Amino acid sequence: MTPKEKIVLLKEVLGSRYPNPKSELNYENPFQLLIATILAAQSTDRQVNVITRELFKVAPDANSLSRMELDEVKNLVRSINYFNNKAKNILEVSRILVNEYEGRVPDRRAALESLPGVGRKTANVVLSNAFRQPVMPVDTHVHRVSNRIGVVKTGKVEETETELMKIIPEAWVIDFHHYLLLHGRYTCKAKKPECQNCPLSFVCDYAQLHS
DNA sequence: AACTCGGGGCA
DNA sequence: TGCCCAGAGTT
C-alpha cells in the first residue's frame, strides 16, 4: 500500500474513531487560537480548555489582554505547565499585536515565529487553522504516528512536515493534524502503544514488526 | 544536539 | 511515589 493510499485509509478509519476532530482548541477567533496554542505546549487539552474558558471571559481579544497586569494573568493560568513563562509570553504577545499589528494576528510565518512562545508548530497551527494556509503542524505525536504507520520515513520533524504535505490534500490538513495527534496521544503512545486496539495495525509497519 | 522549564494527571 | 506531557528557547 502506497503512502497516499494509507492517507485515504487513515482519513476513513481515524475519522470514525475520532469523530469531530475539531477540538475546543480550535477557536474561530485567530487571537484566541494563538493564545490557546501557546498555552497548550507540553500540556493537556483539558488543562488548556479550563484555563482559556476563564481567560477569554476577561480577555477575549488582544486589546483587553494587553491591558492586564502580569500577576493577574499568572493567576488565571497558574494551573498549567510553565505558567510563569506562558503568562509573560501571552501578555507580551498581546502587546506586540496591539503595537505592531493593529491588534490582529499576523498571517505570515516570520511574524508569528518572532512572537515569544511561538515556534514552528504553533505558527503552523495558526496558519493552517485560522488562515487556511497549506502547512502541516507536526508535533511529537504526528511525527511518531506518521513514521510508525509508514506514511513517511523521516528522522526529523521538519522532514515529516514537508513529506506529509506532499501526500495529504490541503483540505485534509487540519483534520489530519487532529487525527494523528489524538491517535498518538491515546492509542499509538510513545511508550506502550496499544496495537491490539488499533484499527490500523493491519497496515502499520510498526505493528507488523511488534506483534 | 543537549539541556531547561516545571504543574498536574494518572498508574 | 514516579513518570510523562497538544514545544520553545537557550547554550
Comma- or semicolon-separated keywords:
211 residues; Endonuclease Iii, domain 2; Endonuclease III, domain 1; 12 helices; DNA-binding
- CATH hierarchy, class of the largest domain: Mainly Alpha
Strand content: under 5%
Name of the CATH homologous superfamily of the largest domain: Hypothetical protein, domain 2
Estimate the helix proportion, in percent. 55-70%
Task: Report the strand count.
Answer: 0
Total domain count? 2
Q: What's the CATH topology label of the largest domain?
A: Endonuclease III, domain 1
State the helix count.
12
Question: Can you characterise this structure?
Answer:
- This protein is an all-alpha fold.
- It folds into 2 domains: 95 residues, Helix-hairpin-Helix base-excision DNA repair enzymes (C-terminal) (Endonuclease Iii, domain 2, Orthogonal Bundle), CATH 1.10.1670; 100 residues, Orthogonal Bundle (Endonuclease III, domain 1).
- The chain contains 12 helices and no strands.
- The longest helix has 18 residues.
- It is elongated, with a radius of gyration of 18 Å.
- The model has no long low-confidence stretch (mean pLDDT 93).
- The protein binds a DNA duplex (11 and 11 nucleotides) through helix 2, helix 3, helix 6, helix 8 and helix 9.
What is this entry, summarized?
It contains twelve helices and no strands.
How do the strands and helices of this protein lay out in sequence?
Blueprint: H1 3-17, H2 30-40, H3 45-58, H4 62-66, H5 70-76, H6 83-100, H7 109-113, H8 120-129, H9 140-149, H10 157-167, H11 173-186, H12 205-209
Helix pairs in contact: 1-11, 2-3, 2-8, 5-6, 9-10, 9-11
This protein binds a DNA duplex (11 and 11 nucleotides) through α2, α3, α6, α8 and α9.
